[in-house]
Amino acid sequence: MTVTAQDGTDHGAAALEPGATIGILGGGQLGRMLALAAARLGMRCHIYCPDPQSPAFDVAAARTVAAYDDREALTAFAADCDVVTYEFENVPALTVDTLSPLVPARPGRRPLAVCQDRLEEKRLLEGLGIGSAPWRKIDSLDGLRAGVADLGGPCVLKTRRLGYDGKGQARLKSTGDADRAWEAIAGAPAILEAFVPFSREVSVVCARGVAGDFAAYDVTENHHEAGILRVSRVPAGISEAGAAVAVDIARRIAEALGHVGVMAVEMFLLDDDSGERLLVNELAPRVHNSGHWTIEACPASQFEAHIRAIAGWPVPSTARIGDATMTNLIGDEALDWQALAAEPGAALHLYGKHAIRPGRKMGHVTRVRPFGA
Amino acid sequence: MTVTAQDGTDHGAAALEPGATIGILGGGQLGRMLALAAARLGMRCHIYCPDPQSPAFDVAAARTVAAYDDREALTAFAADCDVVTYEFENVPALTVDTLSPLVPARPGRRPLAVCQDRLEEKRLLEGLGIGSAPWRKIDSLDGLRAGVADLGGPCVLKTRRLGYDGKGQARLKSTGDADRAWEAIAGAPAILEAFVPFSREVSVVCARGVAGDFAAYDVTENHHEAGILRVSRVPAGISEAGAAVAVDIARRIAEALGHVGVMAVEMFLLDDDSGERLLVNELAPRVHNSGHWTIEACPASQFEAHIRAIAGWPVPSTARIGDATMTNLIGDEALDWQALAAEPGAALHLYGKHAIRPGRKMGHVTRVRPFGA
Questions:
Q1: What value of ipTM does the predicted structure carry?
Q2: Residues B185 and B251 grouped into a single domain
């Protein structure tokens, strides 16, 4: 029996049995960690990625090296898989349209369509009455100048599409920076956001099942450097009430998107005279770097939660067994592996990437400690 | 630079770098979990197994399906690997002899030779002054009758080679059972052991590095049914002093064998008027079912400890983050996966085996709880 969801994706209602094949688009570290989690549950993985040196290939039963618009390869991939998912949100629409009629593709088209476009994200949030930074749609240099004047003070110009790790963004202090910023994003369709004087960045990593069951890991506090996540920490510096609001925001977004699988919602925490306030910064319809600490600190990690959800299993408990700090190993920092391997209690993860490049996420290390220690 | 150890194995002294290839002989669940642990450290795995449906193949970068005495396949395997290890102790001598000149094979020949033969094990223990059940070497039915009379009371006849999970064993109450027992083991060279009135079965899972560094996980209490491990529990019901003795026994054995990697020592705990006493039951020169709980309850599992050790890395911390119970899923019990998946806090592992058979280990579930809870 299959159930057709509102977004047109064919969601098989039955839970996949152990031994089923999970197809994953994208062969980076997220795909690799998804494959490792799937293996723990007795699932078989098939990784699809254009890059023949994809780290995820090394831990999968089957591999397809092909472009994301290769209909023939996609069709063969779908035929080998019981469900298909992805490790990144910028999956081309053509890819999803090719796969969807052949195999359940989860989370499905709507979460992708919304999360691929910052304008759609903003509209979704507005529709749900969920706060985010004040913004303007930008389609021209004149519009940008007007927008900066309108929002006032420092702003961030962000391309609507294909931004990640701080790419496709430009900061502006005033209208005088408009030319430079417009050039920096090559005049792509964009949104302009007012700079928000946040006190912390936090995220909610949550999972939603086929049946609509929902669970969120504890709110994580994130520290970025040069637009790249550097450290995630749990518990976050947020009140209990604030954390409940954050989780509720994530739940409402996941439900509005009909999301199936893991999703991350990055938020700004403002803490001023009027108390705590949360503004959504960005959605990621997938497992997320700020949830890596769940591998050691929870019985079922975000990767396992995603595999369970897309397989039609109930989402797992997201309870923690302790406090945790996750630190990314970026570029050359991965060369410290010997010192990290020698540190008692440090859980070292290296992604098997063939070359170190500046800014490239090469691994991470998680340190778990007793609650409150 | 390489260092030649006393056992003649060529132990490269330098630590392998992330990205190195680990060769694993054997493609069952232990090989699979070793491969998953290696992947976490950025290592690539090559699995060698005669069975084309080996569960470990699904999580490895390279696979060889060939017999263990296929010299050509072994030579090609060695050429692809930076170090070779195994998931089972009954690796034929020919296999090790073919691989050893070509690639470091760890732990190496001596741990295998001793652990493949219960007589050698007994002699090793005697030489170290480590207690085990009273025993006799048995080569004939007459010798068996004499042995039973000599040891008195209930005994266990065990083939010297190729026994596991209670296979190759026969129990005797008296000399009257000798014919049946001798037939049950098909007259294979054997040892006869007096039955030991133990109060508990415990094991020490430990790791020894290339440099001789050593670490043991906390003593585990094991419960068997029909010769198969059913439940492992930590902490074990043993005094602190008893646990220290158990770990010391494991350390002395590992050192005597020049072992590199993870090793398990199964022991009987006798607790009578004269206090606690430990007798070694069996050695396993590899990762062990009674150490599966370390996946969730320690920053580095027994599988990671083994990979680190054979890669020439220091052995990791073996500290626990809580108490744990591991329950094997044997045969049909794996069909309970839906209930287990729905149990909060239960970490479910399924091995991806293609067919359920009675007595076959299909998966396991680990429950971690706070210390003393």
A1: 0.92
A2: no
